[in-house]
Amino acid sequence: MKRSIIITGGAGFIGSHVVRLFVNKYPDYKVINLDKLTYAGNLDNLKDIEDKPNYKFVKMDICDFDGVLKLMQDEKVDGIIHLAAESHVDRSIKDPFTFAQTNVMGTLSLLQAAKCYWDGNWEGKRFYHISTDEVYGALEMTNPEGIKPPFTTKASSGEHHLAYGSKFFTEDLKYQPHSPYSASKASSDHFVRAFHDTYGMPTIVTNCSNNYGPYQFPEKLIPLFINNIRHRKPLPVYGKGENVRDWLFVEDHARAIDLIFHQGKIAETYNIGGFNEWKNIDIIKVLINTVDRLLGRKEGEDMDLITYVTDRAGHDLRYAIDSTKLQRELGWEPSLQFEEGIEKTVRWYLDHQDWVDNVTSGEYQKYYDSMYKNR
Ligand code: NAD
Ligand code: DAU
What we know:
The chain has helices at residues 13-25, 65-75, 89-94, 96-118, 180-199, 221-230, 250-263, 280-294, 324-330, 338-351, 353-361, 363-373; strands at residues 3-8, 29-35, 55-59, 79-82, 126-132, 203-208, 210-212, 235-238, 244-249, 269-272, 277-279, 306-309. By secondary structure, it is of the alpha/beta class. The protein has a domain at 1-137 and 175-208: Rossmann fold (3-Layer(aba) Sandwich), CATH 3.40.50.
């Protein structure tokens, strides 16, 4: 094998797309999916590639320093793409300790294991840390009606083509995280950079905007709402639904990760996004119309499911990524228009009700736990 890499969190939403891309595209790489299989990890996400000879799953906690070090030694690992994390803001508000443990201590444990194994032989090695735009805090909404954004990408080339302020998250902005989740991700980013600056480890950090697409755990806005619309359950819109997020199709994020892992400059940070800002309420209306249409209902007949509820504590108002550095330096661009991506995503969830039911019932977890115990 030409390379041996660990992808952490490969059984989760984004991680499973990254694992699939690498296993299919690089038959001469050994791709090791290291995942603890928390409630968010699901091996069903990888059924189509699980028997490929260049793929291996290892059930492990990233906080298990000895286990990670031994795995790196046994498999002669030369690259790590680190996605494993607790990722849901609402959970972090209820249980910040778990977020500090996994996101901060887990990242530190991985870094330390890589440092011990690579032992200063940095040639050909890479530690790539996947982070979030939430570390930059929230942007002001200076144009609530929307203005023309400075750039158009394929993602934002549809009818809705708006920015809600003139400022964007650029790589040089100072970190101002607000939620326990984003504070834990910010802290892990700092540790990664510290390992470069202190020990010379070849690290890269990327900060991406909101992802959507197949295999996202249905506690996040888009899959939760698609499922609720299908079952005609209330749609809990936080606050006034005016908060803005910048949406990217998950496969476009996975393509960016592939490009940056291979061609990104050591010690650099790249922001990933598609200049594709949407107010939550506008996305929710698109989701209702799309689900209604695809289920043969009258388009918009489920608008009355919208239920305004108490706002999320510390709810960030607006996220908007400036990804011109990545476009300019490495030539990455989103490949999918948002409206096409949403249609594809809604279809996927409607066609995969079994997946949604398994994930939400927790049955998949028991099944795989017993399966791996017996191996
Ligand atoms: P996810 O919650 O769907 O998946 C996380 C995965 O990590 C799961 O498979 C889980 O089992 C695994 N995991 C959790 N704790 C672990 C531990 N201690 N040891 C080993 N594995 C563990 O998350 P996601 O949405 O796919 O996000 C992946 C990464 O991308 C995260 O680091 C997140 O911060 C970042 N990110 C996410 C988004 C987004 O919109 N979802 C955007 C930007 C960045
Ligand atoms: O920006 C990148 C981040 O995007 C990632 O780092 C996180 O891992 C990912 O979870 C996501 O964070 P958000 O908090 O933006 O995503 P979420 O899907 O939870 O919420 C999107 C928006 O919708 C947000 O403004 C809160 C709102 N919302 C969410 C839920 C779950 C609601 O109004 N109602 C809901 O029930």
